[in-house]
Amino acid sequence: MKIVAFGDSITKGVVLSPDYNYTTLPHSFTEIVAHTLGAQIENYGKFGSTISFGHHLLQLHASEVATADYTLLEYGGNDCDFYWKRIALNPEGLHKAKTTLEEFRELYLSLIERVRSLGSRPILLSLPPIGSSSYFSFVSRSLSDDNRSNILRWMGGDVEAIGRWHDTYNEVVFEVGRDTNTPVIDATRPFYTHTEGFNSLLCSDGIHPNGEGHRLIAEAIVNSGTLRA
């Protein structure tokens, strides 16, 4: 069984070390899945990738997709993100996400269509939740107190707005799956139902799953029964 995987740093297997450096897990969820299922997985996950860049990568590796049984897609975490320093400097301004919700939906639909046109079966991976407080602390760590207050004011004084906004993009993942009859592997629910809470499955930046989080994602993929030789 041959699988190609496209996505952001979660697919890439990036984690944040205790000294605040990003590194790649030796046993990311793609590696665990490959070992468990005896599959060949080509991982084209890219740190910082949005779905727009995903289109570029898919075109670049079209020949690989054309020979793959499955193409795993995982996008949304960077698409829903904002340019926080711009918000800090101008909290009264109009600020859009890196990919608007409408653009995200349309780009995902066309990405799925492109995968199918190349002869591979697309599979979507839903997003692990964000630890809003940890993420806010991380992205604002180099800002002044006034600038952090500006960001919080822009969010209506509720830091949990970050997680709710992220959830809207995750909902689109499930929606486009239903609309296109594309399987969606739910990697979200296992985080929410974890006995120690989902924050224990995330790095200190509140967004990248740690080693245990990757194990949980791999388990969700394998147990879904979606990937079959």
Folded structure, characterized:
The chain is 47% helix and 12% strand. It contains 11 helices and 7 strands. It has helices spanning 9-12, 29-37, 51-60, 62-66, 84-89, 101-117, 132-139, 145-154, 161-180, 189-192, 211-224, and strands at 2-7, 14-16, 22-24, 40-43, 70-74, 121-125, 184-185. α6 (101-117) packs parallel to α9. The longest helix is centred in the C-terminal third of the chain and has 20 residues, at 161-180. The radius of gyration is 18 Å and the shape is globular. It starts with a strand and ends in a 5-residue tail after the last helix. The model has no long low-confidence stretch (mean pLDDT 96).
Report the principal-axis shape.
globular
Compute the CA-based radius of gyration: 18 Å
* Broad structural category: alpha/beta
Question: What are the segments in which pLDDT stays under 50 over at least 5 consecutive residues?
Answer: none
End-to-end CA span: 5 Å
Q: What's the tally of helices?
A: 11
Q: Average pLDDT value?
A: 96
Strand order of the largest sheet: 4-1-5-6-7
Order of helices and strands: EHEEHEHHEHHEHHHEHH
> Percent range for helical residues?
40-55%
Find the count of extended strands (DSSP E, 2+ residues). 7
The biggest sheet amounts to: 5 strands, parallel
Characteristic terms for this protein:
alpha/beta; 229 residues; 5-stranded parallel sheet; two-stranded antiparallel sheet; 11 helices
What is the secondary structure topology, with strand pairs?
Layout: E1 2-7, H1 9-12, E2 14-16, E3 22-24, H2 29-37, E4 40-43, H3 51-60, H4 62-66, E5 70-74, H5 84-89, H6 101-117, E6 121-125, H7 132-139, H8 145-154, H9 161-180, E7 184-185, H10 189-192, H11 211-224
Parallel strand pairs: 1-4, 1-5, 5-6, 6-7
Antiparallel strand pairs: 2-3
Helix pairs in contact: 2-11, 3-6, 6-9
